[in-house]
Sequence to fold (238 residues):
Amino acid sequence: MKYIVLNHKMNMDYKTMKIYLEQLKKLDTKGNKLIVCPSDIYLTNFLEAQFIVGSQNASSNKDGAYTGEVSAAQLRSLGVKYTLVGHSERRKYFKESNQEINKKIRLLLLNKIKPILCVGESLNEKNSDSTKEVIFKQLKGAFDKLSKKNVDNLIIAYEPVWAIGSGNIPTKEEIETVISYIKDLIFQNFNVNIKILYGGSVNEKNIDIINQVQGLDGYLLGTVSLDIEKMRVLIDKL
Ligand code: PEP
Fold:
């Protein structure tokens, strides 16, 4: 069983989403665990259709006067079970710091929502051989004040920033090196066997390569998550 997390990002108008939803209901997940992360305005559509649902974001504040924000408590009250945190697009466009990411994680865990924490290096960082250093910093900041029990309820998504939406993916060996680094680090510090997903340009063509990576618990899908036919082919190959 692999986790298959669909990150729709800011895509699909209402009519398109309704058609997509009907098609997704017919998708055979072959025993894999599908988690759908639609835009917030469609969360209830996917919840009512009995999907396991994640949000793409949550506020770092508990409640109150934060126009446009959605809190972890609100998400929980709806039935949302997972939330993406620290996605590179949020780090880049919304200037999310590791400290803010840590606040979000702690609020989510208080509300019994499992955070899916995205970490990964930029192309410059990869080229200057600082991937592990970057990921260490991201994890150290995000895991501040977390207990072993907290970490037990977290999932990590390794998403190299340069791979997201680019069509380029790391080699099998590169992914293996990074995920075993993350797994060892978390085991040494928290005694937890953390679940790790890979995300970044996964598609129905390259899944054969990525699926050979040892120790992966699943995939975070962006672009391909909008195309049910491609996902059908991808899932058939798992
Ligand atoms: C993502 O942004 O989380 C992602 C995996 O995107 P893509 O598959 O389009 O690279």
Notes: The pocket of phosphoenolpyruvate is lined by residues 7, 159, 164-165, 199-202, 220-224 (CB under 6 Å). The CA atoms of residues 169 and 206 lie 8 Å apart.
